[in-house]
Amino acid sequence: MLLGLMFAILYGVIVVVGSLIGQGSLIVYVVIAVVMVGIQYLIGPSMVGWAMKVKWVSEQEQPDLHRMVAELAQSAGLRKPKVGVSQLNIPNAFAYGRTQGDARICVTEPLLRSMNRDEVKAVLGHEMSHIKHRDMALLTLLSILPMIIYYIATSLMWSGMFGGGNRNREGGASPLPLIGIGLLVLYFFVNLLVLYASRIREYYADMGSVRLGSEPRHLANALYKLVLGSARASKETLRSTEGVKAFFVNDPGHALNEIRDLKEIDANLSGAIDQTELLTLRDKKIRLGLGEKMIELFTTHPNMLKRIKHLSTLGEAGPYIVAR
Fold this sequence. Notes:
Helix content is 64%, strand content 5%. The protein is mostly helical. It has one domain (2-312). It has a 4-stranded mixed β-sheet, sandwiched between helices. Helix 3 (63-76) packs across helix 5 and helix 6 (135-161) packs antiparallel against helix 7 (176-211).
């Protein structure tokens, strides 16, 4: 539904602007945006691997990690992704690649040190679900739309103010700059829809991890540990992850705010969320302040308290039905 809405918005923009400046120019903008996304599609995996400091590991080096990934891939009906360990000094995991067949799953060394096997497997299940749901391709497709709108907006403003198009046929002021400004406002709101789509996919990936056999409490504990690890990270470490945090299981930049909320779940301050605490959260009503709602609006990941409450309701999530 969201994808349909985004394309409907783009169609409306093309129809309105096309009637003003002609379709030829619009085709140029669309082609530029598609070419840029195509380049990103081709070189993106290599750039992510470099930015994340990924080292690909063999089965001899990380036998248990490979075993878990292979089991999850079989349960999901997927080819086993390439397995890597990131040298980033923060606990987290991520998946990326062009297609399901080209997928790669990576974990950081601090994650392996801080979590038990059940928690690591729950996190890997989350990333495997991103691959199964084709979230990489979906979000790439969604990202094309605001890019096209941005090119149209800036081109209209440029041509209207500096390209000799500042007057219309009757000699009055050209409407093109104002239309361009309006499209920049639309670009802002369309980007919010892309962020909303990203948050939706995180909820579905959490559900996917449960469907692949993990208990909700294991993923809840893993998320808690990711927040704790991010809150302890240095400012330099957090800055180094700024450009890649959308790939992570959680947003490290919001860990200090999230940890205050999560301590309310961890009633006995054990550093873990047990089954009783998870069930207690299920019956609670989450109330976010205006500031927390605004923060969530501009992030790629859901509010962590809402996310763990969602996990508390997933005890009955059924397994994937894999076509053979």
